[in-house]
Structures are given as C-alpha cells and as structure tokens.
Design brief:
Elements: H1 3-18, H2 22-35, H3 39-56, H4 59-76, H5 79-95, H6 99-111, H7 122-135, H8 139-155, H9 159-175, H10 179-196, H11 203-218, H12 222-239, H13 242-259, H14 262-280, H15 283-300, E1 318-320, E2 326-328, H16 329-332
Antiparallel strand pairs: 1-2
Helix pairs in contact: 1-2, 1-3, 2-3, 3-4, 3-5, 4-5, 5-6, 5-7, 6-7, 7-8, 7-9, 8-9, 9-10, 9-11, 10-11, 11-12, 11-13, 12-13, 13-14, 14-15
Protein name: Receptor associated protein of the synapse
Keywords: Metal-binding, Repeat, TPR repeat
TPR repeats: 123-156
Length: 353
Amino acid sequence: MGQDQTKQQIEKGLQLYQSNQTEKALQVWMKVLEKSSDLMGRFRVLGCLVTAHSEMGRYKEMLKFAVVQIDTARELEDADFLLESYLNLARSNEKLCEFHKTISYCKTCLGLPGTRAGAQLGGQVSLSMGNAFLGLSVFQKALESFEKALRYAHNNDDAMLECRVCCSLGSFYAQVKDYEKALFFPCKAAELVNDYGKGWSLKYRAMSQYHMAVAYRLLGHLGSAMECCEESMKIALQHGDRPLQALCLLCFADIHRSRGDLELSQLKLHCLSESIYRSKGLQRELRAHVVRFHECVEETELYCGLCGESIGEKNSRLQALPCSHIFHLRWGLLGGWTGVGRVSAGHCRAQLA
C-alpha cells in the first residue's frame, strides 16, 4: 500500500469514526497497519487507534498501540514523533491508573531535546502529569501541573487544551472540597465549548456537563445536577463512551442518594444499564443484568399496587407519593388511586422518565 492509498484509507477511517461507525473505522485502520509499509502513515494510524481505544475505554489496547507507535517513531528517527508517542504512552498508563509510570513518561517527554514540548505538546504533557498527581492525591504538584498546562493553553490560544484543563481543575477542587471552584471551572469549560467547539468532538461538551453535574450535586443543586448528568449521558451513549457512561451512572446514584429516593435510583440505573448493554449487543451481560434486576425487585418489593407489574422493567413514567408508595403514572392520571386511598392533587409528585 503506497503513501497516497494509505492517506486515503486513514481519512476514510476518520470519516467513519466521526459518523459514529467506530468498529468499521477500526477495521479500516487495522488493514492499513497490516498492509502499509509507509512509516509516516503507520505512525499516524497508530495515533488514531490510540485515541479511538481511549474513548471506548479499551485502555489495554490503547497501551498496546502506544508501545508500537514508539517503535515506529524510533524507526523514523524523529524527536517530535517520539515525543508524541511517549505522550500517548503516558496517557495510556494514566487511564490504567499506573500514575507513577505516567509521571515518568511525562518527564521523559519534557526532557527530549529539539521537540515541540515547549510549544504545542508541552501543555498536554503537563495536563497528563497533573492528572497523575491528582490520582496519587499529591495535590500541590497536581495544581502546579494544571496551572502550567493552563499557561500553555493561554500562551498558544489553545481553547481545546484549556477546556480539558478546566475539567481536570473541576475534579481537583471537588476532591479538596472547594465546591464553588469545582463548579466554576467546568462552567468555564462549557463556555469554551459553546464559543469555540463547533468542530470539536462532542466528548468535550459531555465531559464539561459531567463535571458540572458533580459540582452541582456537591453544592446541593440536585435539579441542575440531574440535567447536566442526563446531557452528558446522552452524548456518551451516542458515541459509545463507556468510561463516561460509568461515571454518569455513579453520578446518578449519588444524586438519587442525596435526594433520599433510593428505590428510584435503582430503577434509573437499571434502565440506563440495560440500554448500554442492549446498544452494545452484549447479550450475556444483558441477561445477567436482568436477572439481578428481578432479584432486586423481589427483595425491595418494587411492584405497582394496582396492575401488579414490576416497576422499572420497562422505561415507563412513575409517580411517587409522600407515603413512599410508587406506581405507574397512568394510574395516577386516573384519579390518583393508589390502592390505599385517594390522594389530593396537592401531594408531591416525583416522575422518573
């Protein structure tokens, strides 16, 4: 496969990936990797594979391609390519929570002579290092790294990097319990997405919404937290971003726990988890999840008092009363009969979509 054909196939894969045909894109890129002898093309397609597996949460695969990319960069004998591949290796280890390795590879990046580390990629290296220090709870060094990355972003007018740093700073301040700043930085990230992110991946909007949801919950603004988390989950489902889906599920559980509606939280998590398994075609996991759900229904007696059907098995609207009875909304619309007496329209209503 020649250089021109390699370039065409890489672009074809990018178009498929951007249209959410991820598996087809991966197949195209893997064929390029198998057939192309063009080192530049191989290096580029390896970068695509690293990014794609990162966004799908396949971190071991991400690491595997990052290691191959380093070997390719060495064959090219180009310090800039070597820097990029070491950065991907650092990010891979960061995702796998190998934080000490991440810091070591980041230091290697910054120590490479004659590269773009001082300009284009230096901020990304500092960001990855900050995330690793945060994972180790070394808060002072994490903050120093984030501030350094933010300076790179401002000096180079890199709004995309600034957005990523703001999301990380939101996580940082949530952990140190400065909840006002934990909200400020994700809100800033959301503003950057609105102002500059027309051509960006939707993952930037999804991540800013997720971090806003976390901060709103910590501040007790549960309605706003739910709206942001639902927006983030919607994008994560569209793009197959399983790590973000998992984070959103945890956030939903925290929101419902803060509200005190523990039974409704189980139902919400069931509906979302089932949709994830079904969209991915994971039949074995789906069957196991449904079995666990029915066990939960039996244990908590989550049945409608009128129709007798289990609540939450289907994505239906529900109504909860102050007396803690939950029933299908269709019965509530027929006069408010709950099986234990009529309730007035003044009773509070909680609906679960």
